[in-house]
Amino acid sequence: MNPAGAAGGSPGFKDQLEGAATGPSLPIARVAVDSPLPHLDRPFDYAVPATMDEAAQPGTRVRVRFAGRLVDGWVLDRLPASDHDGRLSPLAKVVSPEPVLVPEILGLARAVADRWAGTLSQVVRLAVPPRHARVEAEPALPTAATPPAPAPGSWSSYLGGERFLSALGAGAAPRAVWRALPGPRWPGEIATAAQAALAAELGVVVVVPDARDLLRVAAALEEAIGAECFVSLAAELGPAERYRRWLAVRRGAVRCVVGTRAAAWAPVRDLGLVVCWDDGDDLHKEPRAPYPHIRDVLVLRAHRAGAAALIGGFGPSVEAELLVARRWAHALGADRPTVRAAAPRIEVAGDDRQQERDAAASSARLPTLAWRAARESLAAGRPVLVQVPRTGYQPAVACSQCRTPARCRHCAGPLGRTGEGSCALACRWCGRPAADWSCPICSHQGLRAMTVGSRRTAEELGRSFAGVTVRTSDREGILTQVADGPALIVATPGAEPVADNGYGAVLLLDGGAMLSRADLRAGEETLRRWLAAAALGRPASAGGVVIVMADAGLAPVQALVRWDPPGFARREYAERAELGLPPAVRMAALDGAAPDIAALLAAASPLPGSAEVLGPVPHAGADRTLVRVNRAEGTDLAARLHAGSGVLSARKETGPVRVELDPLSPV
DNA sequence: TAAAATGCATGT
DNA sequence: CATGCATTTTAC
After folding, report:
1. Which positions in strand B are less than 7 Å from the protein's CB atoms?
2. What is the distance in angstroms measured between the alpha-carbon CA of A86 and the sugar C1' of C5?
3. Could you report the per-residue pLDDT of A105-118, keeping only the tens digit for each?
4. Residue-averaged pLDDT of chain A
5. Residue A589 near residue A520, CB atoms below 8 Å
6. Nucleotides of C under 7 A from a protein CB
7. Closest CA to A289 of A119, A34, A62, A61
8. A69 touches strand C (CB under 7 A)
């Protein structure tokens, strides 16, 4: 049925002799086998039969006989000789001569595997899409033309913005943590930066968190450089179209890619610029092992390739701020008057704690300030955006007087009430009981579990504006854009539609619920969501106003009011450094059965000198242990854990332990 | 999942 | 202490 396959499957000794006689200069193929077992995460050498000499180039997919069965693999390299002293098996088959694992991506994949304690094959699966044979046989797409250098446009509003663009255009590699001005200009600004790199004959990779942002950037790119000069890579394209576009990039027909997570790995030629938009969005965290964060992948890629980097958002994530602090990148933003002119006016309502705590009460009695702002906007014919937290936040425990989140005295992990109905207060990281807690800020001893937000709250709110159109945008039904005109748009974070002429008012409801999540990143994440919603409001000069319902004394509220996200990120970083929390330290989360975790730690020892083992504590139906090391020893920790899981998987005695470095929320 | 390595009972 | 057979380990 498949004569080629049959011949390739059993080439026999004669073929090998012939191969040696006709003299391929590199008769050995170094192969990575596609196996998730950590102890097989190393190259294996195979003899290249003469018939495959031409096709089995580095980067191609192959099939090899491995431990008796046929498995998939990748040719990493061709060598004149092997250092393996046993007998070599021949390659069974070259699946396709297309060299899909290009050297730059192979090196990046290895580096990512090493940093996140994963295997090469796990990372290659993230990086290289599945083959589609029919698409591969299609004629090549036409090569896109090089666009002319762009005009700076709104980049002139940023201090050093034109300098950044001209450096890109000169083929240099500037690296910036970019604070975008509020408003809808950022997709165009990304397109301009991409155009500058393309004009210098360099490749560009742009990664955005979701499909809606992808549409916005794609529209801006189409306007700037034309549809034929870039491809967009999205999950919902389907395997054939996805592989078609990816191949056009691999073959050099197109040198600019925009997409969600997977686009970070696109094999563009002569990479000159990587862009990560809104790197604080947790959609950038890869959900498949070894769970790398796309911001970090892009940073690593830019660093290795000597490419420029643009890490942007309305505010820097704490991790991005660290890139500035460590001088890897410089801060790129506008001066204060420019920022203030572009942002709406921000006001705080809901300082009344009793009212704010009770979600039902706050919906029934919207603070007068918020109610009036909405009324005025509607009267002026402008839509109003109402942001409400999603339901289902983990209740955290905080001081009932000043609402400082309760933290463990020993490891600074968050406190919680573990077990069903149990009142035992304990640390969610190290498990130590914390019965005698008192607030470090106000010395108060009372604790309360914070309430959760509710979408119903916002729907009730709509009723108090009789006669006004109320539309909702959330996960179930997402709106992309709304026309100008009086309407109430109730949206959950991340689902806010853009208004054609900006919102007259933006109401940020129930900040307390978002801020009191049992999550290290609650403050940072709340500010990020507020900024994203507030950036959709009209500038203050055009009457735009934002009303935030939260305690005015809280740091994220202050940062929003002053529109100073970098200040918040710096302060947040300093605080985490003090407490020994990421990203000031590096952490690994080990999930599984407690004895298996203990076995892994034993097999991984000696751990780096600074390692601290916290736990195990119950977590999501299993046990979780955290390992914390200083940043310098992060790679070492990953290597030890990888080696340890290799030992265990070879022994086959223990159950699986999930290893995740830099977990988003270590709780 | 095929071959090699190891374990182990058995008969001398 | 060879030998044959079963089980475990390795993996090119």
Report:
1. 1-3
2. 26
3. 999 999 999 999 99
4. 88
5. no
6. 9-12
7. A119
8. no
Q: What percent of chain A has pLDDT over 70?
A: 88
Which of these, A408, A616, A414, A429, lies nearest to A522 by C-alpha position? A414
DSSP A81: S
Of A484, A331, A225, the C-alpha closest to A217 is: A225
What does pTM read for this prediction?
0.88
How many angstroms separate the CA atoms of A592 and A618, rounded?
10
Find the angle CA(A507)-CA(A513)-CA(A519) to the nearest 5 degrees. Answer: 125
What is the per-residue pLDDT across A376-426, written as a single tens digit (0 to 9) for each?
999 999 999 998 876 544 445 778 777 777 887 876 777 776 544 445 777
| Residue A448, CB, strand C, below 7 Å | no
Contact A412, A580 (CB under 8 A): yes
| Alpha-carbon gap, residue A596 to A645, rounded angstroms | 10
pLDDT digits over A299-336, tens only? 999 999 999 999 999 999 999 999 999 999 999 999 99
The two structure tokens encoding residue A543: 């009457």
A65 touches strand C (CB under 7 A): yes
Nucleotide C1 C1' to residue A69 CA (A): 37
Distance CA A447, CA A431 (A): 18
Burial class (CB in 10 A: 0-12, 13-18, 19+), A375: middle
CA of A648 to C1' of C3 (A): 35
A62-104 pLDDT, tens digit each: 999 998 889 999 999 999 999 888 889 999 999 999 999 999 9
Cα A253 to the center of its chain, rounded Å: 28
Q: Say how many C-beta atoms besides its own lie within 10 A of residue A155's C-beta.
A: 22
Mean pLDDT comparison of A87-91, A265-269, A361-365, A441-445, highest-scoring range: A265-269
Rounded, the Å distance between the CA of A145 and C1' of B7 is 69
Q: Is the CB of A570 under 7 A from strand C?
A: no
User: DSSP string of A360-407?
Assistant: HHHHHS--HHHHHHHHHHHHTT--EEEE-PPS-PPP-EEETTT-PBPB
**A598 CA to B8 C1' distance (Å):** 34
Rounded CA gap, A533 and A508, in Å?
8
User: Could you tell me the distance in Å between the CA of residue A653 and the C1' of nucleotide C3?
Assistant: 32
